[in-house]
Write a structure and sequence with these properties.
By secondary structure, this protein is α/β, with parallel strands linked by helices. The chain has 13 helices and twelve strands. β1, α2 and β2 form a beta-alpha-beta unit. α2 runs antiparallel to α6 and α6 runs antiparallel to α7. It is globular. The protein binds adenosine monophosphate and manganese (II) ion (MN) (2 copies). The site of one manganese (II) ion has 5 residues, from α2. One manganese (II) ion binds next to α2.
Length: 337
Amino acid sequence: MSSAAAGLPLGSDCGEALDALGRASRIVLSTHHNADGDGAGSEAALAMHLAGRGKHVRIVNPTPFPEAFAFLLDDASRVLPVGGQEAADACREADLAVVLDTSEAKRIGPVHALIRHLPAVVIDHHPAGADGISGIVVRDTTAAATGEMVFALLERDGAAWTPQMAAALYTAVLTDTGGFRFSNTTPTCLRTAARLIELGAAPHDLHRRVYGSFRRRRFALLQESLATLEVHESGRVAWMIVPGAAYGRTQASVEDLEGFVDVPRSIRGVEVALLFRVAKDGQTKVSMRSGAAVDVNQLAAAFGGGGHPRAAGAVLPEPMEEAVRRVVGAVVGALAE
Ligand code: AMP
Ligand code: MN
Ligand code: MN
C-alpha cells in the first residue's frame, strides 16, 4: 500500500477507519511513549479535525505530552494525564480509541489497559510487530510519517483545513524525516509537505520552533555525551552514551536528546550508529540508525524492541556497560554476515 500524490488510496482499511471515526462521538487518541513530533503532530491535527466535526476528543498518552510540541495543540485539545481519574473516566465513556504512530500494545504502556475494551483504529507506518493492538489497522510502511497518512485520511474525509492542522502535520513529517534528510524523504512526502504549506503551515517558523529553539541544557548534556563517543575498530559502527549522572548535573531530560544519534551517524564510514541512555529501573535504552547495510528493526526486535529498517530502538534489562557490549557485538556480527 502506498499513499499516492493526491493522498489516495491508503488501502481498503482506510474507508473502514473513516466510517468508524464518523460514527463515534467520544474519541480517545493516543501515541507511543515519549511522543515525538510525528505522534504529537498527528494527534493534534486529528483532534482538531474531529473536534470540528462535533466530536468529544481527549488525548491520553503513556507519558506527558512533549513540551516542545505543545504549541501544536489548540485550546480545544485536552490532554489528560494517564493514571489520573479524568483519563480513566474519558476512556470508560469513550466509544472509540485511535492509536497513532505505533500499532503495538507495549508501546502505549498503561494506556492499553484503559482502552482495550474499546473498538480501535490504528494508524501507523511501522512494520507490524508481535504485540499488535486489535482493531481497524491502517498501515503504510512506505509513508515517511504517520502524519503523512493522517493527511491522506483527512483529505479523503473532506477536512476543513486550518493553518494549525496543517502546521501539526507538517511538523510530523518534518521531524520523522529529520528535516527532509532521511531515506524516507520521498516525492509523496514532499508533495504532502508542499500541500500543507499551501494550507497554511509556515516552514520557516516551524523549523525554528523545532530545530532552532533548543535549551542550553541540551548542549550541556551533549557536551558530556560527546566525551563518550566511540568508533569500532572496523570503522563501521559508532556509538555515544548519555551518562546517567549528566541529567542531574545539567537539569536535562530525554526530551533534550533529539538529534544526539546524528552525531555518531554523521561520521564517515559509519554504517550503524547507536545512542545509549539510562532507562528506568537500571535498564538501558538504545537508539539505532543504519544506512543500507543492516536492518536495525530486526536487530532491535532481537532485543525486544522494534522500529523501522533504518531507525529502531529497544530497552535492554541490563546496565549500561553490559548493554553496550551486547548491542555493539550484535551489530558487528550483523555487519559481518
Ligand atoms: P528512537 O531511537 O527512540 O528515536 O526510535 C526510532 C524508531 O524506533 C522509532 O520508529 C520508534 O518508534 C522505534 N522504537 C524506539 N524504541 C522502541 C522500543 N523500545 N520498541 C519498539 N520500537 C521502538
Ligand atoms: Mn514515533
Ligand atoms: Mn513516526
